[in-house]
Design brief:
mainly alpha; single chain
Length: 282
């Protein structure tokens, strides 16, 4: 028996998932292709069962890291050659390009080997009624805001300014046309693509090996680290935990996308209208 994805020879005891590439084989492959077609009510860990594993997640992180490095390199070259960088244009274009990289990664490493539908990434109806799902989403968003505010307050009190969350959007918004485009890029496109990667691909891909709690913690650490800024590491780690829990609790990625979009949208509006509170962004 051979893996139809990478061609590796499979022993009978390995039939089910290829130990080389992680792709499901035989009847298991067919199961993953169709598993949500007749069972929209599946919930919890059953809804997080995906064919990719830690190996595919590791490759996905490597590809994402290369993408981020490439964007930073481009920005550095532009600054070196022109001594100027249009913050608004770079924010729009980098958000778009990084999102496209993410979509390629989750397709190439997650969906392509099995021909599975995007439902495997969490883009499916919630497994609980709409009312509770909305309440859980609002609750996660409120807790994220509260944790960011509490963290900022504590850091201000102890006087460690370099650990304060930065005003991320200060230089990249404000004329009406620019504000609209910035909102689309950072409050809609970015939450969608980041949730597909960090919750739909990374979190779900680690559940099989680490369990729900271990996968949530690990994916939140990765989600936090990719944002680089020291002042947002702890708030974004907490937000990552909340978003992973929300995905697990509702069985759908849409509430996590909505909560993520709500936080980024609120941070953009706070920057535009100049309140004194830092709402943070992810």
């Amino acid at each position: 028996m051979f893996c139809t994805n990478c061609g590796k020879n499979l022993e009978d005891s390995q039939a089910g998932f290829c130990p080389g590439c992680g792709a499901p084989t035989g009847a298991v492959r067919d199961h993953f292709r169709d598993q949500f077609a007749g069972n929209p009510g599946a919930s919890g860990s059953a809804r997080l069962t995906v064919p990719w594993r830690g190996g595919q997640v590791a490759w996905g992180l490597l590809y994402l890291g290369i993408g981020v490095f490439g964007l930073l390199l481009i920005a550095g070259i532009i600054l070196l050659l022109t001594n100027d960088l249009d913050q608004i244009l770079f924010a729009w274009s980098s958000s778009l390009l990084l999102g496209l990289v993410i979509l390629f990664i989750v397709w190439y490493l997650g969906l392509r080997p099995t021909g599975a539908a995007v439902a495997l990434l969490g883009l499916r109806p919630t497994s609980i009624p709409a009312g509770p799902a909305i309440l859980w989403t609002i609750g996660a968003l409120v807790l994220s805001f509260a944790s960011t505010f509490l963290y900022s307050t504590i850091i201000e009190r102890i006087g460690v300014d370099w650990l304060l969350p930065p005003d991320i959007f200060t230089d990249i918004v404000f004329d009406w046309s620019e504000a609209v485009l910035t909102f689309i890029a950072l409050a809609l496109w970015t939450p969608l693509t980041e949730e597909l990667f960090f919750r739909g691909f990374v979190f779900a891909g680690l559940v099989h090996r680490l369990g729900v709690t271990g996968a949530a913690v690990t994916s939140a650490i990765i989600f936090s680290a990719i944002h680089i800024e020291p002042g947002v590491l702890i708030p974004i780690f907490i937000t990552g935990l909340l978003l992973a829990w929300l995905y697990y609790r509702t069985g759908s990625l849409w509430p996590s996308i909505a909560a993520h979009a709500g936080q980024n949208g609120a941070a953009l509006l706070a920057t535009i209208y100049g309140p004194t509170l830092s709402l943070g962004s992810v």
